[in-house]
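Hi all, a correction to my earlier message: I attached the wrong file for DUF1214 domain-containing protein. Here's the right sequence:
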Amino acid sequence: MAFGDAPADTDLKAAWDQFCERLKEAGALAFKDANPANALQRADAFRFLTQNLGQAFDLALETKDAAFPQIHWFTTPTMKLGGDVADFTYRQAWISGEHAYRLTGRRGTARWLNITVQGPRPATITGTDWPSLHEPFGDIPERNILGSQIETDARGNFELFIGGQQREHNWLPTTPGSRKLFIREAFDAWGETPTSLTIERIGMAEPRPMPSPGRIIDAMDWAGRFVADLMEQWPEHAWLTSGGVCDPACLNAFPADKSANDASDARRGRMAAHMLWHLEPDEALIVEMDMHEGFWIFGMGGAMMGSMDFLYRPVSYTPARTSVDADGVVRLVIAHDDPGVHNWLDTQGFSDGNLTYRNLLSQSPANFRTKLVKRGDVLGQLPADTTTVSKSERAAMRLDRYRAIKRRFGI
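and the right structure:
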């Protein structure tokens, strides 16, 4: 038996060839102007591509049938996408308004959990001419429920129903256009534990059909567009379409309006802001924020907006893990090497990247200030009572991080 002996051979080969061509074009975008022309960050762009190539067919095929839903982790310590933030976990499940689902699990101790039903994905961002972000993003949030609103038994076990008949408790309605369940969990202290989750369609009695040639061809098309679009749209999409992200013309500063806080953000249960930074080898950046209520997270990302190496490096801070100065100010230091201060954000050797701020549980506005300094002047630019750490203390902090992140992902 050889090529051409089966009826779908020609169509399958054409679809695969098109996928490979799109992958080749996606690789060429690693050299775009928005990605700094240094060896480490050129390599990181290809890593960003290959990480997402690894999940392309999980999203396009293996979990795509809404009649046989599966929960998929689309960011992990080894897979970054969509401006993900360290100290969040991101999961999704393809669903359909035609069906009803049961989501079961045990509530962990993470400080924040948000489960959202996402609706149709418009061609353009609402109210603009900008195209929606690539699949699997761009959906319109329809309804959400917070972890604090989910009723559990004494051990934390729960059932949450998605769609179907209205229920008084633990129910998220759907619409005919509902297409995805988006699950985010955010962690503060290292000892917090994740929520376990599994999903099934109510009435699911038959096995999932084996994929036909037509289904495989559709998946190849979806996966090819996915890898091409993510390389084309990141990072430019962030500043072209969001009021909460400064463009490269305002490096090392947060946008003047401080946060993106529209109705869509409210349904996602967050406030957000992003700063693009650039540091020469002998520079450091001091970032200040007046301490405020709520649950906030600072997380470092690379040029392609994916989170930095949060498994091994200090690239994120939350209230439980941050030293606040006596004057009520949070001061973070972005530097290429350890300046010996508690709140160090490691650049992991990158010359350029972004710092993302998320505020959950409150609408308290943030007040940011930044100061670019010489690396050797860092300690002189900080208050005398700034918390410092020794090399052995930093090593212990890294180990605490490593163990906590592995616990979150069960790895």
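Sorry for the mix-up. The chain has a mean pLDDT of 94.
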